[in-house]
Amino acid sequence: MEILFYRYNNICEPDIIQVFRDFGVTVHTEEAEMTDKSVTPRQCAEKITSWIVSRPLAFVFSINFYPAISYTCNRFRVPYVCWSVDSPVPELFSNALRCEWNRIFLFDRAQYEYFRPQNPERIFYLPLAANVKRWEDVVLNMTEEDFARYGADVSFVGSLYTEKSRYDALLASPDCGISEYTKGFVDGLIEAQLHVYGYNFIEENLTDRVVDEIAGADPGFYQGSDTYADTRRYLTAHQYIGVRLAAVERKRTLERLARRFPVTLYTASDASALQGVDCRGSIGTLTGMPKVFHASRINLNITMRPIETGLSLRVWDVLGCGGFLMTNYQAEIPDFFEIGRDLEAYESLDELEQKVQYYLTHDEERTQIALNGYEKAARFHTYHARIAEMIRILDGQAPALSQ
Length: 403
Fold this sequence. Notes:
Blueprint (H helix, E strand, L loop, with lengths): L1 E5 L6 H10 L3 E5 L1 H4 L5 H14 L2 E7 L3 H10 L3 E5 L17 E5 L2 H7 L7 E3 L6 H8 L4 H7 L3 E4 L8 H6 L8 H15 L7 H4 L2 H10 L14 H27 L4 E4 L11 E2 L8 H8 L2 E4 L11 H8 L4 E4 L4 H4 L7 E3 L2 H12 L2 H18 L2 H15 L6
Parallel strand pairs: 1-2, 1-3, 3-4, 4-5, 5-6, 7-8, 7-10, 8-9, 10-11, 11-12
Helix pairs in contact: 3-4, 7-13, 9-12, 11-12, 14-17
């Protein structure tokens, strides 16, 4: 079996390519977009066409959804398989989502339920996974110096989202067109959502006025010409307010913990506004990050709210490294793990603070939970397990794949 993997340099790509090859699949890669982010949809379609006409491809694969690939594969009657690892993904509003030859896998159940009605027989739910073998190769070779360097009471690895908040960028302009009413409405909505874990109510509570003002204030607001629905409400909730909420939540959470415990932060974001946090800059994803997860007593995960119910890649990474995970509650956690046995979760900052205090003083219990989470991830939630499930679904959906 031969497939084409269309790459754009997502962190998951090497892991998935390796698993396909482990399963005996010949993987060809199209890598133009890894270095040239100006590739147009037409150029993308031309590259895919060239591959399809020159190879007997079982399917074309990508991380996240590319309408140009979908349309091209549909024209040649070649399955297009993609796995969404982000939220939001505006391209999922393209009419291409309805193409017959799509096989789309979404990692967040809420995202899946939202988009599945557009192509119910060809959109599937598939959570993310851990590359345990990759992380083992790093953590099993850690030295005493590594543990001394990367060890910490509480660690957080991730963006502060301050530089990614389009809403904040709009507000920075004095004539942005966003009224005081809308600013107050958004602030209030964020404050309310910060107190609720496991359910995202931002989109359903937006008024038309708020949507119109935010969408109208940004000339770059995603307005696809080939969409089956108005994207403004969804993207205002998730791409604008949701990212702003992530910035507020991460700053507030880190500073709250830092008032009582040593907190270490690894981020490429500007952390100069944080109070009391040991900010160490960015860290290598494949080298230093797994050492942090393995050596830290508590690894904190703060899921950005546009991931409504699912488990972010950070959850799987920490567990795959054998680290102790403290994460905000997500509705899908009980589907995979037992809270208090495989990992820990919190539903308020008060609960987070209490649990951090508890686990910093209960070493044996904390270590056992980390071991349990690692064993469950290694046994049930690897990329090999996920890709095997994907191929099982594909075999039932596309006869050409079993030939």
